[in-house]
Amino acid sequence: MTTGTGSAPDETAAFADDPWRVVHRYGAYVLLVVSFVLSAATADLIGMDRLDWWVLCCLTGGALVLQLWWGHRERTRSGPTSVSAVFYWVRWSCAFVLALVNPFYAFFAAVGYFDADRLLPRGLQRLGLLASAVIVAGSQAGGLPPGDSLGWAVFGGLLVANMIFVVVTGQLQEKEQERARVQARTIGELEETNTALQAALDENAALHAQLLVQAREAGIADERRRLAAEIHDTIAQGLTGIIAQLQVVKNAPTLAVAHEHLDRASDLARHSLGEARRSVHNLSPAALDGSTLPEALKKTVHDWAARTGVRADFTLTGTAEPLHDEIEATLLRITEEALSNAARHAHATRLGVTLSFMAGEVTLDVRDDGRGFDPLTLPARTGSGGFGLDGMRARAERLAGDVTVESEPGGGTAISARVPLVRHG
Question: Does the keyword field hold Kinase (predicted)?
Fold first, then answer.
């Protein structure tokens, strides 16, 4: 039972899913039959004569035909129209006359409560409900018209009660329908959201697959760069040292000197082989096995000085701390590359390596008094295989550090590497 919901298209669509649709479709027929049966059963009690029976049968049949016609028409049209309003008032007129003949036709008149909002324009819905309540209240009061002032008073009270009942019930029904419409909209929005979410999930799955491919390719490229840098820093430098020792052997003045340099070349070959194996398995440099970084750097500088004949010193400043394995390996490799470059290009007579532990960072400085160079004229990549200064920078940048180079022709070279101080473990 509703009391006015308008005629908007969305409300018309809501009526199609109205839980009262069974009542709307069949309620009038059921109430008409109930009214006829009760009227026939109480005809003698009420005192119906032949004329009353003739009016009752004719109007009941007419009301049935009218309802059948409207039921057929309503299947193809919906919503209040002028035709539906005429139908409502003609049916009400039949119910009013039938209730005058027999009060039990109030059951048929009550159908006006259920479809006033579907048949009447919004401005006439209250009037339609009042008209239906007049028939029902009159029948409840004993029939229309009341016989005396008490009957009119009872009729008035029943009319007010019926209208209150209709209005309250209609408001509740309207709220229920509004709640149903809100739920329908919410369900629709959830379906749209789920559709969009599924599309986003599908897109994310495709992006995830693409990222996996890119990550795999990036990992392969990074591993190639790592191996290339390791080969340059180990095998290439080792072979360079071996070649240098063999050249000395070729021109050695005595057999003893030749044997000495052959031993050095042999040691370099074994060392390079071990470093190559470690590089393939991504292990720490051999110099760091069982040694701290300062100890490994000191030994590396000492061995380099012995091979090249250049005076080289190692200095430690600050309090040494065990560093993360990757940081120690990086600083050691940068030192080896700097020493290798100095041996090949600097022609220095003195070199110094300084490792400094400071608050939050570790710095490594390699300085020589060689012939130097102009950094602005340096090619983009230097060194064997293109992993000279660029390789040092790449190693430091992987650890959020950096490498700076200061040099000038005839003024020596200073290479400084800075990396974060990340403790071991």
Answer: yes
- Please enumerate in sequence order all residues whose Cβ is within 8 A of that of 233, keeping only pairs 6 or more positions apart, or say none: 333, 336, 337, 387, 391
User: In this structure, how many other beta carbons lie within 10 angstroms of the beta carbon of residue 250?
Assistant: 9
> Burial level of 53, CB count in 10 A (0-12/13-18/19+)?
middle
Of 323, 327, 315, nearest in space to 354 by CA:
315
- Which strand (E) or helix (H) includes residue 414? strand 413-420
Phi-psi region of 408 (alpha: psi -120 to 50; beta: other; left: phi over 0): beta
> 407 by DSSP, 3-state: which?
strand
**pTM of the shown model:** 0.42
Strand partners, 414: 367, 406
User: Which DSSP string corresponds to 256-313?
Assistant: HHHHHHHHHHHHHHHHHHHHHHHHHTTPPPGGGTTS-HHHHHHHHHHHHHHHH--EEE
- Report angle CA 349, 355, 356 to the nearest 5 degrees: 135
DSSP conformation letters of 206-258: HHHHHHHHHHHHHHHHHHHHHHHHHHIIIIIHHHHHHHHHHHHHHT-SSHHHH
Domains of the chain: 9-145 (no CATH), 291-425 (3.30.565.10)
Per the CB < 8 A criterion, the answer to whether 327 and 422 are in contact is yes
234-282: per-residue pLDDT in tens? Answer: 666 667 777 777 777 777 778 777 777 777 777 777 777 666 665 555 5
DSSP bridge pairs for 367: 352, 414
Q: Is 166 left (phi over 0), alpha (psi -120 to 50) or beta?
A: alpha
Give 158-195 as a DSSP string. HHHHHHHHHHHHHHHHHHHHHHHHHHHHHHHHHHHHHH
Angstrom distance (rounded) from CA 216 to CA 273: 29
**Separate counts of helices (H) and strands (E) for the chain:** 14, 5
Local structure of 380: helix, strand or coil: coil
Instruction: Supply the pLDDT for residue 321.
Output: 92
Our measurement of the distance from residue 13's CA atom to the centroid of its chain's CA atoms, rounded to an integer in Å, reads 34
Q: What tokens appear for 121 in the block?
A: 């324009």
Distances (CA, A) of 113 to 105, 131, 162: 14, 10, 10
In this structure, what token pair is assigned to residue 174? 């309207």
Q: Considering Cα of 276, then 278, then 280, then 284, what sign does the dihedral take?
A: negative
Report the distance separating Cα 246 and Cα 22, nearest Å: 107
Query: Is pLDDT larger for residue 266 or for residue 195?
Result: 195
Cα atoms in the 13 Å half-sphere on the side-chain side of 232: 24
